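Dear support,

I submitted the protein below through the web form. The confirmation email said the job was done, but the results page showed an empty box. After a refresh the structure appeared. I'm attaching both so you can tell me whether what I see now is the final result or a partial one.
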Amino acid sequence: MIKRTMKEIAVWVNGEIGGADGTHDVAGVSKDTRTIEKANLYVPIVGENFNGHDFVTGAIENGAVGALWQKDQPNPPSDVPLIYVEDTLVALQNLAKNYLASLPTKVVAITGSNGKTTTKDMVTSVLSTTYKVQKTEGNYNNHIGMPLTILRLEEDTEIAVLEMGMSGRGEIELLSNLAQPDAAIITNIGESHLQDLGSREGISEAKFEITAGLQKNGTLIIHGDEPLLTDKVAQSPFHVITFGNRETNDYCPTQIQQKSNGTYFSLHGETETEYFIPVLGKHNVNNALSAIAIAKQMNVSTTDIKKGLEAIKITGMRTELIEGKDGVTVINDAYNASPTSMRAAIDLLQDLKNYKKKIVVLADMLELGDKEDTFHYDIGKGIDTNKIDEVITFGQLARKIAEGAKTNFPENHVHAYNDKQALIAKLKETVEEGDIVLMKGSRGMKLEDVVNELI
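What the results page shows now:
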């Protein structure tokens, strides 16, 4: 974590020391008084419904050595070591940028509509076989979280793997300029944020912002089956590496085998080497390809790449296979959903064998804009009646999934619910030993409540 004096930090954030002489030693940064540790610098963020300045005194009492203070905020405490700044959020970001620039750490940045977190976990696991690596923890991937992630880096960390999320246009550009990555990965372009960005083209432009701070000699790794990305890199000054299902890509999978314990595959042109990821879903092979690509770029041996992939620990609720009660298996993929990721999850379930019944529980996909009804309907219509036995939906939008499914399924095999407890009761009545159930929906639908009832 960052270890500097208040005076050194004041220079980095263009601030002014007040209330102390600036010699206090800072060890770490926090924006939350509940998690303050001894010698932390407290950063009071001003939000729509809260103001961290109200808690500066409490932060000091809990162990903080000092705090930032936004100049337009009234009544700063006189007995607390402070650094006065124009904007505490901008100061936090500048502090992170300058701290990272002071380290020898290389940065791998990751964004995309789907698979960011899984790819981050894979890249970290593979690179950790050879280097000291730290990664974005949890969902600390936005304009506040990523600076906090950077400030947690140890000074001898060799590679930082930073996930970059967004809520709108311009945010990834900001994050990229803060991190100045040596390499960047764009996992794919899906439909998430259509409501805000209007089109997949708009989403592509927003994700491509990851190149804003990419080093001039940096490496850009992209999904080569996506024209919205390949067209953009035609004149790119970066070293571009592609991955995907087409043989024209630099990294392409072959001999994919889906088994209950994970997925096996080889690389086109390297069929003598078999890779294994303890993760379900052919779509996750693409995520693994990007991890292989960056690892090879950083001179990790094939042996270590294999070890790293085999040892990955995926962040929860992402294609997580769980043995539930009474012999029922659950695929918990309830962290989030878009049409692309939902189709991939359904394809995974359709490919699995040796289960008595296969049941999908699909909830609303949010933030899809004007075409949300069509997206949901098409998901339902595309489910294969020969490979899925029951379709159960949750939420008002997901009723369109049920409508689409009913064009192919018998009506008594498709059920739509707005009440979660009624859905749970139906599942408990339906599932039996040997069945497998897929749970997939947007974060706001909280399908983990249903998962917990089954496990």
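Response: this is the final, complete result; the empty box was a page-load delay. The chain has a mean pLDDT of 93.
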